[in-house]
Amino acid sequence: MVKRRDVVAGLATLPLAGTLSFMPAWAQQVTLEGDAIATSDGDIIIHPVDHASLVLGFGDAVIYADPVGGAALYEGLPPPTAILVTHGHGDHFDVPTLEAIAGSAPILTSQEVFDKLPEALKANATAIANGADTSLDGIAIRAIAAHNITEDRMQYHPVGVGNGYVLTLGDKQVYIAGDTEPTDDMLALTDIAVAFLPMNLPYTMTPEQAAQAINTFKPAIAYPYHYGDSDLAPLETVGDHTEVRLRDWYASGA
User: What is the DSSP string of 208-243?
Assistant: First the structure.
């Protein structure tokens, strides 16, 4: 059984992480640590924060996805140049956290979240619907349907409310799923270099569903996140087309 404690214990054997350095306005170098994924325009740096929160670094871009948990979780990280919020649940969307860290960074989110933002944050925010394309801080982004498909789970994430996002970074596509089961949009994805997939019941996928989804759309690298205490052993059935990377999304003790 692969559970949270096993992920933590296994970190020492994982591939070496990369770093990406940024020079904020006050001229003090800040380094974002994490896995490095090579692209035609430099590395993507992947930095887990907690549960469903993560930071992506790419060139001068620092993209925060679903930042929650308070400002202290983000101390020592470069400030965001853009923010993605998938939907309005509290483990993905938290106004005090956004108020503390957002600064003037543009925010891309769902209509549900946009409507809940205070005016100061709303001024820099844009809502996007499932299936739409846009650009955020110069990065091409497509919104992917994120919802439950199992009848007795539909109340958690109804159709048309939440977003996943596909970001184009250099010649690579990165998919951040948000909270979802395997939607038609997910299963139809192609040429995904990196996928972040949630798996905890009753809200998102089971690990078995996640493995089946990975085996269908075949991302080059898949990161389980939002997994809680799920047994991740079913991910061992993923084919050789995908590298499943287990990282510690609960280092903060949440």
Answer: HHHHHHHHHH--SEEEEES-TT---GGGGG--TTSE
Give CA–CA dist 180/28, Å, rounded.
39
How far from 28 is each of 22, 58, 63, 75, CA to CA, in Å? 8, 18, 19, 14
pLDDT tens digits, one per residue of 228-246: 888 899 999 999 999 999 9
Alpha carbon 223 to chain centroid distance? 9
Q: Which two tokens mark 43?
A: 């590395």
What residue type is assigned to position 130 of the chain? N
Please state, in angstroms and rounded to a whole number, the distance separating the CA atoms of residues 199 and 191: 22
| 46-78 confidence digits (pLDDT tens) | 999 999 999 999 999 999 999 999 999 999 999
* Bond preceding residue 198 cis, omega within 30 of 0: no
C-alpha span between 109 and 117 (Å, rounded): 10
Give the pair of three-digit tokens for residue 241: 């087309």
CA distance 8 to 184: 33
DSSP single-letter state for residue 78: P
